[in-house]
Structures are given as structure tokens and as C-alpha cells.
Design a protein that fits this description.
Helix content of chain B: 25-40%
Shape of chain A: globular
CATH architecture of chain A: 3-Layer(aba) Sandwich
CATH topology of chain A: Rossmann fold
Number of helices of chain B: 11
Number of domains of chain B: 2
Oligomer: heterodimer
CATH class of the largest domain in chain B: Alpha Beta
Strand order of the largest sheet of chain A: 6-7-8-3-9-10-12-11
Largest interface: A-B, 47 and 41 residues
Order of helices and strands of chain B: EEEHEEHEHHHHEHEHEEHHHEE
Low-confidence stretches of chain A: none
Order of helices and strands of chain A: HEEEHEEHEHHHHEHEHEEHHHEE
Largest sheet of chain A: 8 strands, mixed
Radius of gyration of chain B: 21 Å
Number of strands of chain B: 12
Strand content of chain B: 15-25%
Structural class of chain B: alpha/beta
Shape of chain B: globular
Number of helices of chain A: 12
Structural class of chain A: alpha/beta
Number of strands of chain A: 12
CATH topology of the largest domain in chain B: Rossmann fold
Strand order of the largest sheet of chain B: 6-7-8-3-9-10-12-11
Chain lengths: 329, 333
């Protein structure tokens, strides 16, 4: 039984479409996305630049910046809370207390002139009435969990920490209010492999210890094998495939997922089988007719150039948006 | 007489000043590159692998004469590049090219692709007339896959995607048929689906022109793909700690740092990922490069540390086995 079946969903996204409007042009960054995320699950959202993964994540916090607009769809949190209708104080409390997000490049988002400890306290007191001593205790437990020395880290200014240390401190800070969901946008992209590995190990550990739901956005399929149970592959604002991590890697069923795997240079395995995905990423202002991947797809047939394939359940818990998924692999 | 090595770095040290200790204090000095030696033969690919801040870009820039070393020499065909004068210097400049990491900031924003790519040819007066320059530019744009060249020639960098910009950078370097190229993290900022395409292009150009490469990357997977029988050097905090044939080094790393680094590489295979265990280090974060530990710079994190030895003196880079150089007391030194 998959994790998703065991736990009721914490997020239920229905037919979400998000548009950015620039003068008289509009671009759909996310198109008709439906997805359930189970409570306590770790989900990876994989896509290249422009695939819409960050926009999708921002929608989960009702945080789409102008000129972006959620044009249709609904997001339910924990069964009945309609995220897109939250306003004012209610929305502010929802963010960080229920769902925290570590943004891309978060290691540069500390205030450079405040010590880590001061920024940490501010976060807590902004959201909760709690005495200083208690807040410090909670912070030091979390810093230990992310393998930092609490005393030294709290006294340090951001520039005194390395990239990996800052990112870990940021993760600890995001968990201060004990959120139920932690969204991480490319948390290891600017880091070297060893720092990356430590962060991935820490995420697995946090999930075990705190039961927090993890949504990991990344362009790198390989890091999904380390942390997540389920992978959502996105391309041009649409979901292409949803599968358990192992199934996806061993038997990809969408030509794009397969292409991504073949395009990743690996340290082990056969190097010579690597090949790029032909063509270039889609022009968001000028999307092809039919399936957005069809101009680059070796499997494309006439129907792919005419109609966009729906995201269908192809086996239990496994979804693919492709007319030819049976022939892939 | 020509030397065997196209390029040789001898005991290179590059020091930088950082911050300052008050108004009258002396700023701290640290060695971004610390006593590094490396030989590159004609047509050879050497990958330089290491984490961010280890000094690999500084080494690359010093190797093609863009940064003057604090001490040590860079020899091009046996001659010190900082002593070349006149036409010898110009020839070296033409033959040693660099392709930068970031295609978003390394192209002139208000020049068109045609001017960017052809400027080297014009500067070095390699081709006499504008018509021929145009032909050559079209040819190279076609070679790097910017098709049709007529269309791309008149574009500004901001009108191109990251992958296309990196192709412009490659064209700008290759149009001079250089003998030595420093490629600095050239696919790091490129989308996954396009990486292999850029690497394949560079491999093809390498075969065609027979150029030597110093291929800087933090990604062993990319180094392995580009290697083609070449060698890899691993850097840590300014020191070269291991050098060997790329495949052998990846399959059987000797230096504890190389071992740890390779054990941390994520593998896109869930079954393999479960079996692999990362080597636990004594300290998970690297030291401040301004203040490295005494002796071997990896000693404070190394699980195999021999106290009273590793923490006293920096081990030399010596041959540990057939063609493999390692700077570690576990292998003599």
C-alpha cells in the first residue's frame, strides 16, 4: 500500500491554472494541474527552468506575485481549508505555521546585519506569543537536528557561515513554528555535493522525527532517489507523469521522463548511452499545438500534434499524460 | 624545439587579500591556489574537480594567463607566459581561450552575436577581409548548432536561451582554433535536457581541432562524460590532492577526500542509491579557507587522520601507483 493511501491528503489541488499577464500578453505558467499530496509524504516535483514548479509551489501558499493570477482551480488544505480564499491575518497565520517554504537561493535571504539567533527569535515572536527562553530552546533543538552547533550558530552573522551551514540554518528556521508541510525550492542547487548529501540526509531524518510533509522542487532527478517517495514530472506548466520513485526510475512511462534520465550524465553506469533531448525548451509565448512536448518527442504521432493528452491513471497510483505511454521504455 | 607538454603549471600559488583587520591592520591573506603543479599534453583533457571555493576557477584563470600567480610559473610550450612579448604573446593569447561558467554575464549585452563571435578574428587579424570574416563566422555558428546562422547572427544575447548563449561562447572561443581551452563549469547553468548536447558539441570540436582542455567542473558525472581517456585532478582548499585517469579515479579513489566526495554523489538509480553509504567525516563543514587547519588541509575532517603526522605537515603529491598521484600519508608521502 502506498503512503498516499495510508494518509488522508494534506493538499488537494484541482485543475489549477496560473497565468502571468505582461502588457497585452499572457503566459500560462501552470496549466490544469491536479494533484493530491498525502499527509507525511515526501514528494519531489521535477522540472527544468520554466516548467512551472515554483509557480505551483507558490500557489500552495497563495503567494503568487503580481502580475501573476490564479485563473481557475481550487486548493484544499487538510480536507476543507480553501487556501485561495484565505485573506489578511488568516493567510499570514497559515503561512509558516501550517506550511513553511524555503525559497530558492534561501541561503542569501538572511538579513546580513542580524545574528542568526535574532532573526530566529523574530520569526517566532511575529507569529506566536511565547517567552524568549522557550523559543530559544526550540531553536536549539532544531539546530541540533540539522547538525549545527546551536550556541555558535545563534551568535554568528550569516556571512560567518558556509553555504551549506546557512541552508541548514534556514531549514531549521522554517521548522520553528512546527509547520505540517515544508516546501523546499531547489534547496541544494548552489551547494556542493557533500553539503547536498548532508541536507538530503537531514530532510529524511526530519521527516522521520517530526512527521512533516516534504515537497521538494528540483531540476535534478538524481536527488529524488535520496528523499522522496513519489515524483511529479512537470514540463511547460503541465504534469507529465506521477509515479513512485522506484517505478519512475526503473520504468519511466512518459517520453519526457525517459529523456531526462538518458540526458543525465552519471558517475556510474554506461556513459555512452547518454543523449540530449533534441530541440529546445518550449517558448511559453508560443506553445505548440497538442502535447507541449511533441516537437521534441521521438514517440510523437499525429494525434499528439492535435490534442493535448489528459493525465490518466495508467496503473494504481501512477499517472501519465501521453497517448503512447504503452510504447515508452 | 617543442616541449612535450603544451602547458605546464609549476608550483603555482595565488594569494588573495580578504577583509582587513581595522584601519591600520594588515588584511588577511589566503592562498586560493597553493603550490599546484599540473602538466597538460597536446590534445589532452584534464578535468579539474572540486567543491565551490576550492580554487579551481582561480587555477584555470592563472593557467591561461589571466591572473598573475603570486609565485610559480605557467609554461606554454616551455616558455613562461608572463615573459612572452610582442607577437609571441599575441600568439599565446590567440591559442589559449576560456569559456566562462555563466552564459548570462559573459556576453557583451549590446553587441550582436555576429560581432561577439567575430571580434577575436578581427583583433588578431587572422582573416584579411570582411567578406571572409563573415563566411568564417557563418561556418562556426553552423558548427556549434546555431542554425540558421543568418538568423542568430543578428540577435542580441538577451534574445537567446541559456543553451544558445553557451553555444555563442563556444563559437567565440573556437573560431580562433585555439590549442588550449579552459572550460569553466560550462554546463552547470544549462538545463538537464541540453547538457549532453553542449558536451557532445565540445567533444566533436576537440576531435576536429585537437585542442587540449582544462575542463573545470564540480560534477564527476560530467567529468566522466567529457573525459575520453583523459585525466582528472581533484582540488581541495587550494591543493591538488589526487590526479589520475578519470575512469580509474572514479572507480577506485585513493585520497580520503576523493572517496568522501564520490560517496556523496547522488545516483539516478533508486536501487543503487539504497546500497550506497556516504563516508562519514569528522566534521561536516569545511573550515574557513582563510584559516585552514595545519598540515593536510583535510585533516580536521578526515576519518583516517594519523595524529602527529597529518596535522603537522602538508603531504606532497606523489605517485601512489601506476600513474596515480596522491597527496596523503596513507600512501607514503
Amino acid at each position: 500500500m502506498s503512503l498516499q493511501e495510508q494518509c488522508p491528503s494534506i493538499y488537494k489541488i484541482d485543475n489549477l491554472t496560473v497565468e502571468y499577464v505582461l502588457r497585452n500578453l499572457s503566459v500560462k505558467a501552470v496549466t490544469d494541474v491536479s494533484l493530491d499530496i498525502g499527509n507525511g509524504e515526501a514528494v519531489g516535483i521535477v522540472g527544468e527552468s520554466g516548467s512551472g514548479k515554483t509557480t505551483l509551489a507558490l500557489s500552495l501558499l497563495n503567494l503568487i506575485p503580481t502580475p501573476g493570477k490564479i485563473v481557475s482551480g481550487r486548493i484544499l488544505f487538510n480536507g476543507d481549508k480553501d487556501i485561495l480564499s484565505l485573506k489578511g491575518e488568516e493567510l499570514r497565520q497559515f503561512r509558516w505555521k501550517q506550511v513553511a517554504m524555503v525559497f530558492q537561493g534561501a541561503l542569501n535571504s538572511f538579513n546580513p546585519v542580524l545574528r542568526i539567533g535574532e532573526q530566529t527569535l523574530e520569526t517566532v515572536t511575529e507569529h506566536e506569543t511565547i517567552d524568549k527562553q522557550k523559543a530559544l530552546e526550540r531553536a536549539s533543538v532544531l539546530l541540533k537536528l540539522v547538525r549545527l552547533d546551536p550556541e555558535r550558530t545563534m551568535k554568528a552573522f550569516p556571512h560567518e557561515l558556509s553555504g551549506g551551514m546557512k541552508q541548514r540554518a534556514m531549514i531549521a528556521m522554517s521548522l520553528l513554528l512546527d509547520p505540517r508541510v515544508l516546501i523546499l525550492d531547489e534547496p541544494t542547487t548552489a551547494l556542493d555535493v557533500m553539503s547536498q548529501k548532508y541536507i538530503l540526509n537531514i530532510l529524511s531524518e526530519l521527516r522521520k522525527r517530526l512527521g512533516v510533509t516534504i515537497i521538494l522542487l528540483t531540476h535534478d532527478l538524481a536527488i529524488c532517489t535520496e528523499v522522496v517517495d513519489r515524483v511529479v514530472v512537470m514540463y511547460a506548466g503541465r504534469i507529465m507523469e506521477v509515479a513512485n520513485t522506484e517505478d519512475l526510475f526503473l520504468r519511466p512511462k512518459h517520453p519526457y521522463s525517459l529523456g531526462l534520465m538518458q540526458a543525465t550524465p552519471s558517475v556510474f553506469g554506461d556513459v555512452k548511452k547518454r543523449k540530449p533531448i533534441p530541440g529546445s525548451p518550449p517558448d511559453m509565448f508560443n506553445m505548440p499545438k497538442g502535447c507541449p512536448f511533441n516537437p521534441r518527442c521521438q514517440y510523437a504521432i499525429d494525434v499528439c500534434r492535435e490534442k493535448n493528452p489528459p493525465l490518466e491513471e495508467i496503473s494504481k497510483g501512477r499517472l501519465a499524460a501521453c497517448y503512447r505511454w504503452r510504447d515508452v521504455g | 624545439m617543442k616541449a612535450d607538454n603544451l602547458l605546464e603549471a609549476r608550483n603555482l600559488t595565488v594569494k588573495f587579500s580578504v577583509g582587513s583587520a581595522g584601519l591600520f591592520g594588515k588584511p588577511a591573506r589566503f592562498s586560493a591556489v597553493d603550490d599546484c603543479s599540473l602538466k597538460i599534453e597536446q590534445g589532452e583533457v584534464i578535468s579539474l574537480v572540486g567543491e565551490s571555493g576550492c580554487g579551481k576557477t582561480t587555477f584555470g584563470k592563472t593557467a591561461i594567463g589571466l591572473i598573475r600567480p603570486t609565485s610559480g610559473t605557467v609554461l606554454y610550450e616551455g616558455r613562461d607566459v608572463w615573459k612572452l612579448r610582442g607577437s609571441e604573446y599575441t600568439e599565446f593569447r590567440r591559442n589559449a581561450q576560456i569559456i566562462h561558467q555563466d552564459p548570462y554575464s559573459s556576453l557583451h549585452p549590446v553587441k550582436k552575436v555576429y560581432e561577439i563571435v567575430s571580434s577575436g578574428v578581427r583583433y588578431h587579424k587572422l582573416i584579411p577581409n570582411e567578406k571572409k570574416i563573415r563566411e568564417r563566422t557563418i561556418e562556426i555558428l553552423d558548427t556549434v548548432g546555431l542554425n540558421p546562422p543568418d538568423y542568430f547572427m543578428n540577435k542580441y544575447p538577451h534574445q537567446l536561451s541559456g543553451g544558445q548563449r553557451q553555444r555563442v561562447s563556444i563559437a567565440r572561443a573556437m573560431i580562433l582554433s585555439p590549442r588550449f581551452i579552459v572550460a569553466d563549469e560550462i554546463v552547470t547553468m544549462i538545463d538537464v535536457s541540453l547538457k549532453i548536447g553542449i558536451l557532445n558539441l565540445l567533444l566533436e570540436l576537440k576531435r576536429r581541432f585537437g585542442s587540449s582542455f582544462l575542463f573545470i567542473t564540480h560534477d564527476f558525472g560530467v567529468a566522466r562524460y567529457f573525459a575520453e581517456g583523459g585525466r582528472t585532478a581533484v582540488m581541495y582548499l587550494g591543493n591538488i590532492v589526487e590526479v589520475g585517469k578519470t575512469d580509474e579515479l572514479i572507480m577506485d579513489p585513493l585520497h580520503p577526500y576523493t572517496k568522501a566526495l564520490l560517496s556523496a554523489v547522488p545516483v539516478p538509480d533508486p536501487l543503487l542509491a539504497k546500497e550506497r553509504k556516504m563516508i562519514e567525516l569528522r566534521k561536516i563543514d569545511p573550515p574557513n579557507p582563510v584559516n585552514p587547519p595545519p598540515g593536510c588541509k583535510f585533516s580536521d575532517r578526515c576519518p583516517y587522520i594519523m595524529e602527529g603526522k597529518c596535522d603537522l605537515k602538508l603531504p606532497e603529491l606523489l605517485e601512489a601507483k601506476d600513474g596515480r598521484l596522491v597527496a596523503c600519508y596513507l600512501y607514503g608521502g
